[in-house]
Amino acid sequence: MKAYSLDLRQKVVDAYACGDISQRKLAKNFGVTLSFVQNLLKRHRELGTISAKVRTEQTPTKLNAEQIEILGQLVAAQPDATLSELRERLYEKTEVLIGVATVNRMVRRKLNLNLKKKSPPYEKRH
């Protein structure tokens, strides 16, 4: 998810500084969540900045290289398998249980595959 712009952040802080408006109303008026407003104002008060936090550490992938290779073999063995089926077969082989969305992400990003099914060609009927 992209961070909110500095311009929006500044507008929220300025509107709150003018007073006479609750954080809840600020959130509603600017179309953001209450927690965003609360965290932004806290960050401004404590650190003197309104910029977004910089992410320093990437979340590690759920599968290691060997498990990704096994997933690739499963897809190659049965290309028309559903994500749920791939998930179950991967669990049987590796005893690693991941979600269907994670299977999808691993297949698309790590294996560079598209699981879109091809439908049979359309035949004209007379």
Please tell me about this protein's structure:
α1 (6-17) runs antiparallel to α2 (23-30), α2 crosses α3 and α5 packs across α6. The chain has helices at residues 6-17, 23-30, 34-47, 65-77, 83-94, 100-110. It is 56% helix and 0% strand. With 126 residues, the protein is mostly helical.
- Broad shape: elongated
In the predicted model, the low-confidence regions spanning at least 5 consecutive residues are none
**Residues in β-strands, percent:** under 5%
Mean pLDDT: 88
Q: Tell me the helix content.
A: 55-70%
Task: Give the helix/strand layout.
Elements (H helix, E strand, L loop, with lengths): L5 H12 L5 H8 L3 H14 L17 H13 L5 H12 L5 H11 L16
